[in-house]
Amino acid sequence: MSIKLHKIIHVCFLSIDTGGVSVFLMEGDSVTLHTDVKTTQQEKIRWHFNDTHIAQITGDLSFICTDVQCNEGTERFRDRLKLDHQTGSLTIMNITTTDSGLYQLMFNNSINGLQLFSVVVHGESCKSKSLSLHTNVKTNQQEKIRWYFNDVRIAQITGDQSNICTDVQCNEGTERFRDRLKLDNETGSLTIMNTREPDSGVYQLQINNSRFSILKGFSVTIISEYHLVMKMGSL
């Protein structure tokens, strides 16, 4: 019997758009806000986040500071900021949703040399997401529905509900999905809670009764990424 394979891509992401070009980053990656200049001995470059001083460098490198070195109250970026000594560009490491806001770049304390970076980090962790694989049928007393993940049985329900099991109840070795699987008693559809990348794989649905058998396959890919949106402007 041939299996019809349904492809499902489950994406949890944060988006980065710089000048109309999207770049995808994995969680914990770094992003750089570029000055597009080279520092000179006369220049002073200061970075602010939502009006809080977070980084500074002088052209002769006589004064350099980041996060708590610049402002004792700047715990948000502790050990996550890096300045390029040649350009003054600012790198934010281990990017997170709390890094959203307005970044200001100022040259020589002059408002005429002010550039703005509006950074919006959005999205939710895959761990808070659920994914449902639908049978598109209604169970009856004669039907038996079984779910497999990479050929290991992970869930089962009979039409009269005399036999219902999920994860370790079906197979003692199925620790991967412990307490994260839920069966719909009416349809036999399977919900995977708190999805994560190792849940990627082939899920097989087997429906049997006295008249027919149905076999379906679901190719599931879980992608966890950041998508950061940056807009730059100047005053």
From TrEMBL:
Q: A Pfam family matched by this chain, by name?
A: V-set
Entry superkingdom:
Eukaryota
Stretches assigned to the Immunoglobulin V-set domain: 23-112, 133-221
Write the protein's name.
Immunoglobulin V-set domain-containing protein
Which organism does this sequence originate in?
Answer: Cyprinus carpio
